[in-house]
Fold:
Amino acid sequence: MCIKIKEKFNSPQKQLTSYVHSTSSDSSNLFDTHNYSKDLLIEIDQSEHDFHVTPSSLEPHCPIFTLAIGVLDILVLIVLYIVQEGTIITSETWIKMGCKYVPCMKPLYSKAEQEIYNVGLKSQCQSFLFPYQFFRFITPIFLHGDITHLLSNLVYQALVGTLLEGKYGKKTLAICYILFGFSANVMSSLCNPKSISVGASGAVYGLLFFCIIDNTLRVFTITNIQDKIIQFLITLLVIPYFILSIFLDVDSSGHVDHAAHIGGAVMGTLVAIFLCDMPAFITTRIPHGEKRIQLIALTSIIGYFIITLLIFYLFIPVHLK
Structure:
């Protein structure tokens, strides 16, 4: 028999025990000795009165969002090949499809340049929302340079996305993924305003940093040595991606957008601080520790976007000369 517990119990905070053996006489005290702050799956063996308590996030799950975003990335690349009628995609095609291209996202610096180039730019960028095509902070996430570029992102996107979606759910992961990609392209626009940029590596960097911090913090909250080893191995799995993205040109364009990686990593770190459960040795040293940490993280996320977007639109000049 399985009972799913959703309510938060007001009993004193105690460490959750993963397995409890109980007789019928003391089974009523089970909920008095454990604090359930999240959904739990309680499995009860009526013949032996054994109670197995498992967080619902550890139940087998289908990573719907992770699969959907992977399929979408593949389909978009196929469409690009069809539109281009080949596997070599030109910059004109990238711009039409929604890559990060700053002259489509804000007006040119001088009136003279606007008079000379705006007609051509409007045709090149498409007229929708020109010259304030804000959507180009997001659409590059779904564009990739070639199959190698796509696969290098998909492998780790699938690995890390599946882990995080199992714990935080598809809606939370979807919001995080968009935030990471948005942050990556904002940073890329600030640091490389003259370049064309595509790819989900900035969003993947955000997922990786989120996963690393989540697993590192979890090591301090679990006591089983086997679980600690598993968390450590999961963290080790992401290291090859960093090496690949730093030292190899994965998008065949001759340029790796490290600014986008930094933007994704910064947002991944802030979101992790906001969402992850903090160990007691941190929260107990700060008054209202967990809430205060979450407030600082949320304020930092909002402040980051306000500051970077203001800098981009007010202080970054755009030239085509």
